[in-house]
Amino acid sequence: MNTKTIKSTKEKSWVLPGVKLTHKEFIEGIRNAEQGSFMTSEEFKSKFYAWRSEKYK
User: Fold this and answer.
1) How many Cβ atoms are within 10 Å of 33's Cβ, its own excluded?
2) pLDDT tens digits for 30-39?
3) Alpha carbons 54 and 34: distance in angstroms, whole number
4) Which of 17, 19, 25, 43 could bridge across to 39 with cysteines, CB 3.0–4.6 Å?
């Protein structure tokens, strides 16, 4: 008896389950998010360490 593995060709969903979103809406959302402000690495580190110290008291 020969066993064959069948490759799944179904693409993974890049949106949340139950949310209907077109590719154009997805790309537009990314562009809008990129226009906002970003944290510097120093800001991220300070906020991360503050969060971690609060979580693991």
Assistant:
1) 9
2) 898 889 788 8
3) 29
4) 43
